[in-house]
Amino acid sequence: MIVVASGIQVIPDQHRFEKWANFPTERALFFDLIRANVSVPLIIISGARHISEVSRFDLEHYGYPLYEFTSSSLTNPWGK
User: Fold this and answer.
1) With contact defined as beta carbons under 8 Å apart, do 39 and 50 qualify?
2) Could you tell me whether strands 2-6 and 42-46 are parallel, antiparallel, or unpaired per DSSP bridges?
3) Are 48 and 8 in contact (CB under 8 A)?
4) Is 70 within 8 Å of 49 (Cβ atoms)?
C-alpha cells in the first residue's frame, strides 16, 4: 500500500474551497501517474478543510478504488 499526503483535497471537486480540482491539468497528471506506475492500493491523506471527510474515487484503468481521508478536524464533522 502507498500513502500520499496532500495539503489540500485531491478527490473532492464539489466544494468551492481549495482543492486539486482547481488545477485540472495537474490533477489529471497525478491520476495518469497513478494509472501508469502504481500496481498496489493507494490512499490519500489530506487536510485544510476544517472538517473530516472520507472520499472514494473509481479511477478508470486502475485496479483499486482511491480513498482519501481528510482529517483537518476529526471532532468537527460537516453537517448533522
Assistant:
1) no
2) parallel
3) yes
4) yes
DSSP string, 1-58: -EEEEESSBSS--SSSSSBGGGSHHHHHHHHHHHHHH--S-EEEEE--SSSEEEEEE-
Please tell me the distance from the alpha carbon of residue 5 to that of residue 59, in angstroms, as a whole number: 18
Amino acid at 45: I
Q: Which residue has the cell 473509481?
A: 58
pTM of the model: 0.85
> Strand pairing partners for 57?
66
By the 8 A CB rule, do 21 and 27 touch?
yes
Confidence of residue 51 (pLDDT cuts 50, 70, 90): confident
Collapsed DSSP state (helix, strand, coil) of residue 73: coil
Question: Which tens digits make up the pLDDT trace of 33-46?
Answer: 999 999 999 999 99
| Among the listed residues 71, 40, 43, the one whose alpha carbon sits nearest the alpha carbon of residue 57 | 43
